[in-house]
Amino acid sequence: GVKYIDIEVETDKKIIKELTEKTKKFNTKIIISYHNFAKTPSLNELINIVNKSRTMGADLVKIATFINYPKDNIILMNLLGEVNDIIAIGIGKKGIVSRLSSVFLGSPFTYASLIKGKETAEGQLDYKSMEQMFKILQPKSGTKINSKKIYKSKIKGLVYAPSSKSVMQRAVALALLTEGKSIIRNPSYSDDGLTALNLVTSLGVKKEILNRKLILESSGTEENDKKFKLTCGESGLCMRMFAPILSLFRNEFILNGEGSLQKRTVKMIEDDLKRFGADCKTNNGFAPIYIKGAIDGRNITIDGAISSQFLSGLLIALPLCSSNSVLKVVNLKSRPYVNLTLKMIEDAGVIIKSDSKTDTFFIKGKQKYKPIDVKVEGDWSGASFLLVAGAIAGEINIKNLKLDSLQADKAILDTLALSGAEIEKSEYFIKVKKNKLMSFEFDISESPDLFPPLAVLAALCKGKSTIYGTERLKYKESSRAEVIKKEFKKLGIRVELFDNKVEVYGGQIKGGKVSANNDHRISMALSLMGLVSKEAVEIDGWESITKSYPDFFKDLEEVGGKIE
User: What 3-state class would DSSP assign to 378?
Assistant: First the structure.
């Protein structure tokens, strides 16, 4: 699954040649790096170094030079204007500006440390600081820097599915409540994954990052008198799941969100936590949430119509209460994700009995979680976009997806089969190939995140496709059904909305300018439209993908997507 191998330019040419030949079959790219820790050479010298590196087999060239004077930053910026497929960054405190500007000037990515204080070079920023700087520097929407163009493309190749942020956040929550060291393998460092990680470290959990392994050390639910102000970023799962978990503690918490999360109702959290004995209030049903525990076991009925994420938080929290609980859920939605939560709880040593006929959970109190050792599986939600890309624009192979996964969005395979796409499944990969596509009907009540990729699939099917169970889409990062109708119309595709269903009429995609509406799944859906469009599809606000799948556009390019 390695995407890049970084080799110093001074490395023996025979070794570079051998690595280049061996990595081709794995779609791994070679970065050849030049470092100068004393100065920044002239522009012509750097261009010669880039050209030399390319003759050695570099897919990307990294230039990292020490910045002694402001003009050295200008040399690196000019280098980015002269040559393509390079990363040009400055070393030293005066080089910080180049680390930020390089991305805006053409570098495919830049470098940051995951943890503050663990920087590997002078002038390097930690991830959160760099993210904040990018938000400050981001230009107004509609400018070239803030948009991407996707052109008609032929998709073919192999991709590794990203790590599941849903599994990651549940694992982080469980690690918080254990006493000792927990291990999370193949972690997700998407925005939502990092948000959960930052939340628990704010509560005192110690973290250590070792390659593709994350070690979290917690003292469990020991009490102290601290007051905490915590943020969930734009992660609905983080807020809904951690609210009942934080209610186990007797501390005072202010749990806030950003962006669209501040517009999503949390009234059910306030009402239900009060019923479990917590002191809880909100801002007229919206974030921030003020919480002071501790909750205790109860015999209570809750409504699961809006989200199952709060239920997942209760199921994680209630076994640690001093009393037993009986939790009955009416209108239970996204049942597969509840089953995922229960399986992870069981793997952590806690038992919850349930009656599937009545959606009732019997939870014994005074239980304890044991430290976990979890491998985060591939994310079916993110991979669903790539699978649809194969179905509409060529063929694709995806690894790191479990066929026996409890993730609800595994249902994408059922819909692809209904539409007529060719599907090949094995223990090691899933292959989807373009075929004559037929209209379909599908209910997304249990998997609402599939709506955007299914809407794209429907746009390429002949006739009218109907997607049922769409009522909950208004509680997502955007009102997704309305946004899809608005943005698809710009591209020549007709979409009709009803109370709990959406009809999509297949047609010719004409291209044009569209907006992601600050929604990661809308951004990915619109990019797929560009793969089969007569003219380019230009997406404003594409960077919202970092919420769940930061490498989406890189992966799409690696299998043939033409992106500018």
Answer: strand
